[in-house]
Amino acid sequence: MSDALFRNEPVSSTPCVADGVSISLAAPLKRYSLRARTAEALETVLNAKVPQKIGATEGGIACLGPDEWFLRTAAETAMPTDTGLPVAITDISERSICLVVEGPRAAELLMTGCPLDFDNFAVGRATRTIYETVEIIIIREGEDRFHVEVWRSFAAWLWTAFTAAASH
Amino acid sequence: MSGYRLENGGRIDRSRPVEFSFDGNPYQGFAGDTLASALLANGISLFGRSFKYHRPRGIMAAGSEEPNALISVDRGAGRFTPNLRATGVEIHAGLNAFSQNRWPSLKRDFGAINDRLGMFFPAGFYNKTFMWPRSFWEKLYEPAIRKMAGLGDAPTQEDPDIYASTYAHCDLLIVGAGPAGIDAALEAMGSNKRIILIDEQDELGGGALADPALWPWLERSRKALIDAPNVTILTRTTAFGYYHDNFIGAVQRLTDHMPNNSDSPREKLWRVRAGEVVLAQGAIERPLVFDGNDTPGVMLSSAAKVFANRFGVAVGTSVALMTAHDSGWHDVFALVKAGVGIKAVIDVRTELSSALLDEASRLGINVYLNHSVTGVNGRHRVTSIQICNNDDFVGARIDCDTLLMAGGWTPSVHLWSHSKGSLAWRDDIGAYVPDQPNENARCVGACSGGWDFGSGMIVDVLPTPKDQSRIKAFVDFQNDVTAKDIKLAVREGFRSIEHIKRYTTNGMATDQGKTSNLNGLQIASTALAKPVTDIGLTSFRPPYTPQTFGALAAHAKGALFQPTRTTNIDGWAAENGAVFELVAQWRRARYFPKMGEDMHAAVNRECVAVRSSVGIFDASTLGKIEVVGPDAAEFLNRMYTNPWKALEPGRCRYGLLLKEDGFITDDGVSARLAPDRFHLTTTTGGAARVLNMMEDYLQTEWPDLDVWLTSTTEQYAVIALQGPNARKLLEPLVEGIDLSADAFPHMAIREGTICGIPTRLFRVSFTGELGFEINVPTAYGRAVWEHLMAEGAKFDITPYGTEAMHVLRAEKGFIIVGQDTDGTITPFDAGLDWAAGKKKPDFVGKRSMARPDIVAPGRKQLVGLLTDDPNVVLEEGAQIVADPRQPIPMTMIGHVTSSYWSETLGRSIAFALVAGGHEMMGGMLYIPMPGKTHEAKVSGMVFYDAEGARLHV
Amino acid sequence: MILIHCPYCDEKRPEIEFANAGQAHVARPLDPSSQSDEEWEAYLFIRANPRGRHHERWRHVHGCGRFFNAVRDTVTDKFETTYKAGEPRR
């Protein structure tokens, strides 16, 4: 891609650091929506292990629904979407951005608007859910580290909500 | 300080005096005081005026059940909170509190005239009296009544405070931290359960705070709970509602007790999901019903004990007790111990335990058994009481400044009732107690009816020799409902307590009848000569106590009120003076005025620029769905009205989407990228709805199809480049795509790069001009836009907004679904029957196109309108008639859906939905407007370049 | 806010992740063109409004995205059961 043209992100590239929690914009990623009737069908195409259970992640692939997976990988590694097989691979790299919520109060921050119980949300788990009225995907990367994927047009609102809650 | 503060005792910090004000007068209290205890210590007995009669009222209770002492607190501009209970307001330096519902002052209240006229204000008075004449209600009666009858003033300024909110999860939620709640927490503490303990007061303890003998236990327990890692303690927190599946709403008050306003949240809304709920809400003492029982200085006996033992305040210097329950005796003994002077104990009962009598005798208290209070003297404070024997009515006068009432106890089943747990009546305590749960919940302690207060007798109204119709014996103190009102309701034919409640308003005030419900029930029961259980029980509903709107709205205000979705190019538009409008949740640039331009001048300029050179438009908000899989074409063929299977890769098609009822729900241009891949577009507002509808059919009707849908609305920023110079501008910037007319015709798609960025380039037009829609990965939207602006300068490139887009499309006869259609318009009605595949055996909505109503003549159809006077721009929404001379009310045959000034055509244009409109071509219709009826000719909808010469270049 | 068991995720999730999608087991006729006006009217517009057990469709729209069926009591607002789309009526 042209170096001349800049990326324009919907939130600040300067992290918000508050007591016990920080919120920062993750670096650009490649993202794909992977759809197939079974995990096996995808495994054939990807030549990689694909998690079977909704909520599980494996090698950057999260199972979000019975026929839906979410692949995130380094920005440099584009993958072919045209397989000719009964699977669907769609490039959604720029549909969302990722906010990294990190620190001992990370789960507490998400709880301010997300009704899930993070005491029962293991590291490695991923799910689509909702923060107040905004749909998000939460991936628990570590005990104190979450990735929150949010569609770009909602990102500014979510950033404001997170940073306000973090300051409380 | 006056003589009401006891020498010793209480949990107040006597080393920390606190200065505050009430009605503008300065007072002093101690840290740990409530506004109620501090003012009582200062000898204040008058706290407010009652709702209807403006009677002087004092403190009746010590907790959140207080019905009388409602006050307002002013914390500065916009920080005005009315209707707080003085018993729940912690004093702090600078506290600025006011009494309510009085004018000009609390002591001299003009509205008190209502009390003198009380006999004219029976239950149902307002409904009966102010019916006629009807027109007087809004202008005269209601404003006058509202001024006279009321609570505190509503705040008038915007609230500058911020409010926090959170969800929380626990295995065990305990509501109420009195002894029963604390015991439940201690018992569960050793498990690995996550426990939340909630209490509305500033410290744990509940009733134990008024019992010094329990303080060592309380301190040990408090420490143990604070040290337990699995226990979260929330004080100053009111669990206000109990909802399905053990979901409890609670508000934590964070800063109101502090001297200074801060930037941190004032309150926090807790949305708690609990595995099990233990309700330990305690019980509320019941007042007794007798003439003058609302005089300042008459209060609950348990409250007097709280004020003495917790706050070190004597509620009076000579105190009498009217009791029907043992607990009153125990309270009085505690008061003696605390140093409060007791004048007499009057018990309505004839027999009671000798232990109580012996203790009273030992303490030298005068005792009157089988007696009742029949009157109270004093207006702003009790001066004496009248008592008499229940049998012979032989009376006596007792001088005292305070009269305590002990009428028994009512378990607090509020939250239990919110949860739809059932209740059982217990005759022995004259109260409903929790029975069968509806959630995983249980009640412990006094709110389950289990207590050691002793026993009592249930009396509805105390015996009196007075004419019952002339006394004011209050049942609901906050709504000014007397025993007489309830009896009147029964006489007028009301039988159910639900009806009696609504007629008399008993229990309908902000305290939800915490002190009045059961007395009202008993009085109705006696009047109807039916057992209480036959009369029913009114329901408790959230909130348990009033909560601020701020807490419930939490952070949903200002910038966070609701998400405003913005495109990648929005920032450029903002920096370049765009005027915005909201379309669904999206913020879109409406027009880009130059210096001195109004909207019309800007829109005219933008339209002309597109028609004459090139315009640039942010179309990113268009909904986009990627449809992928071997059955993609088959699926679209079933969804859309038109055929898709024969569409070649690289070509686009206009798609019309119906609902199964045959009415248009969405439209858009879609492209086939590959045999198994389509790029759909939808309207901005329809994106989510269309995807949901398609998923519905795919998942539940045709699960056999191998095709998947992915929203790509936000994957691409979309820049529309429209106008005769569009190709010239684009050509040098694009690689990998031959832009020539032959290689890249209208309604085609190509993939390549623009300025080095990958693009899905559509050759489409919503303006009628040569046009392209450039899809680039969203992050690069603004950069590509700015590049086009710079390169386009030589063509005088003009950014245009949604308003110009609307005009341009209308000139070409393109409809906007949702503006020109309203959910009852078929493809035929809209003149789009060419897009409905008649040869296709089926598609969503096809069968409905043969429904009797839809083939019937006279349906509203979309047509063009050209006003007789070309300068008249009709109002959108204006009604249309066939004959302007017909009498009013006229028969309206349609309305204007779109109407604009067309600078290109030098005249106005409009679309309208008109009954039978397709048959009226060339005919005249009339649009009656204030002052003038406009005349317009029915025309086709394409006003400009009907043959499409400008497109195919 | 109730909890709803999603039969695909196989766990109870908060109500705000879900959307109601009307009465369940109203199948689109395989050949709509063969339907009489009355039959088509019944398919389009006629719905049950029971007091008590009600078969409904819900979608875990902010979760796994799947439509499923549920039996909910319209009086108590309690879910009796939920099951996957395509499974027989319960």
TrEMBL record, chain C:
The GO molecular function terms of this record are: sarcosine oxidase activity
Q: Which domain of life is it from?
A: Bacteria
Q: EC number(s)? A: 1.5.3.1
One biological process GO term for this chain? tetrahydrofolate metabolic process
The main enzyme category here is oxidoreductase
The signal peptide here is: none
UniProtKB keywords: Oxidoreductase
Q: What protein name does the entry list?
A: Sarcosine oxidase subunit delta
Q: Which organism is it from?
A: Sphingorhabdus rigui
